[in-house]
Design brief:
globular
Length: 142
């Protein structure tokens, strides 16, 4: 996929998932509880946002002509080494990747109170902001 089209799609997905999480945040802030269906939607939106960010991290590494690791954790660690994100950001990325991994692989042990707090505090905007930043030009023949 051409990098310009990849970026457009990345932003589209980030915008859609962020809007869903904003809706959930409004429900929470109004003092209402999320239904089980809404909780499931929140988890899915979080998962999609983080997976989208993992994909973008790999595109940024390609743009920097850096090796692209298999591990999401290693991808973001490499972004720190090549100066694309800060060490402080890395700690936050490790946390969001950890929650994504739990959603996908350890779904019986998700602390919904923690997830609700993350949504209440709009922690997902960190991911969305990353996704909406432009990607430096890549070789479009790839």
């Amino acid at each position: 996929m051409r990098i310009d089209l990849y970026q457009i799609e990345t932003v589209r997905i980030a915008t859609e998932q962020t809007a869903l999480l904003d809706e959930a945040q409004q429900i929470i802030m109004s003092g209402n509880k999320l239904s089980r269906l809404e909780q499931s939607g929140v988890l899915h939106a979080w998962q999609v946002l983080v997976e989208n960010a993992i994909g973008k991290s790999r595109q940024l590494l390609k743009a920097a002509k850096e090796p692209v690791p298999i591990s999401a954790y290693d991808s973001f660690d490499s972004l720190v080494r090549c100066g694309k994100i800060s060490q402080t950001d890395l700690e936050q990325w490790n946390s969001v990747i950890g929650l994504r991994n739990r959603i996908v692989h350890d779904y019986m042990n998700i602390d919904m109170k923690l997830v609700i707090q993350l949504i209440r505090d709009k922690q997902y905007l960190f991911i969305s902001d990353f996704l909406c930043q432009p990607i430096p030009d890549l070789d479009l023949d790839r």
